[in-house]
Amino acid sequence: MVHLSVALGLSAKDLLTAIDFYVLDKRETVPQGLRYIPQVNTERGPAFVALRKQQDGDCIFLKNNLCMIHAIRPSVCTAFPFVFRREGSDLAWGLNAMKDICPGLGKGIEVPASELVQLGTETLRALSLFAGFVEGWNNKAKKPTAVEFLESVLTDPRFTV
After folding, report:
1. Each residue of 58-101: pLDDT tens digit?
2. Which of 155, 161, 145, 12 shows the shortest CA–CA distance to 74?
3. Which pTM does this prediction carry?
4. Where are the beta strands (DSSP E) in the chain?
5. Starting from the edge strand earliest in sequence, which strands make up the sheet with 40-42, in order?
6. What SS3 class is residue 38?
7. What is the pLDDT of residues 32-67, one digit of tens each?
8. Given the DSSP bridges, would you call strands 90-95 and 82-87 parallel, antiparallel or unpaired?
9. Do the beta carbons of residue 75 and residue 122 sit within 8 Å?
């Protein structure tokens, strides 16, 4: 979020054009890919923070099948289509997409295990940092709003660029 804000010159309020807070219906189960992602308390309830989607479900930064923010994309985008988790002291990874979502799966060169270890370590470090921040935010904010959350992220020294 901070990289987007700085690179695109967006304030916390402006970031709401690029970032969305997805609130699940109470009857919905959390999708497999979101089970390890912390929910942020907002004025609409607990929400998952993600890049906003277009009507067709594509990321708003995807134009002509190219990422318009590739150099500053969030770590979850960098890791796509892989997901990472710790199993004890071991790093485990798998795929978080199917061919209909990511037609490039199985094409191109195989990603070496050493690169996956590095990517997974960086991704889990970023997720842990974000999860710690979210936990503090959820415990502290009395009447939380999405804009206040973004303002807090943008001013927190843990997320400086």
Report:
1. 899 999 989 999 999 988 889 988 889 899 999 998 887 666 66
2. 161
3. 0.85
4. 19-22, 40-42, 45-51, 62-63, 66-67, 82-87, 90-95
5. 19-22, 45-51, 40-42
6. coil
7. 767 788 999 999 999 999 999 999 888 999 999 899
8. antiparallel
9. yes
